[in-house]
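Q&A log
Question type: sequence-to-structure
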Amino acid sequence: MGRQSLRTRATRSQTTASLVTEGRADAIGQMNTQLRQKFTRIEEAVNDMRAQNLRFYHHLGEICHEISEDPGKYVGQDGTPALTLIERALSTHARTLRAATEFSRKYTVAQLEYLIGLYNRETNYQLNWGHAVYLLTLPTEARRQSFAEEAVAKMLDPKALHDLIKRRTGRTGGHGRRHEMPKTIGAQIRQVNTESEKWLRKNNEVWTGAGESVFGNILSLPLDKMEPEMVEQLEDIGGLMARIADAATENIGRVERAKEYIETAIQERADEVAAAIAEEAAQAQAIPGRQSREIDLSTTR
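Response status: OK
Response body:
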């Protein structure tokens, strides 16, 4: 898939932030006094929920840290590690518990409250747990604070913050080995076709299938199985799917141009060969004394 340039990503982030600011100002400007009072209460509730979410993960991390410091005391009856049992009991992921533990270690209570208190004065934009996960990849308090303040000022979503951190720190991102380019053009074309079919098949059979599907399971998820991080993960998926859609649309155009280029080149080559044969035949006719012989296959000696 085509990759967006750093300049394109930065421009898109700035444009999005500008549109959010303008849309917010326009919406609030149209509210009468009574509605604005209600909106203020709603906004306070949303901000309180974000703050509670960050405090929840920080407190969860403190508990997990205490457990990890004394593994002999906290252990399953069959010897299963404590955090493994907690992971199963909460139906969460080990990486979430690890991130929460790291969050409690890297952020003091004062630093946590500073993070919660950051907000964009124009839009009231604030950070959530998704931002904190990426801030944890930074080695120092100063860098975490700097990136957090920039994310609030520019209203970056967690994925945009992650991209910014990778650009500034020189990280390439991604998982596993770098994808290799097949050696021949034919193999390259087959790779695009094969990998695209795999993605589409997984989407149709697993993510959105008629029977059991990922999104179907999510929409039937009971309340006691829901986690705040799921919302942030789904937001990341939504952004990723939008980029996939953009890349797919661009690739449709690339496919048409590539197909037209090859078809045109092949036709031009065929025309050149036909013209060369015709020219050779014309030259042969023009040489004095050289005539083509006709062979009568109807008679035999």
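Response note: Residues 2 and 215 are 27 Å apart (CA to CA).
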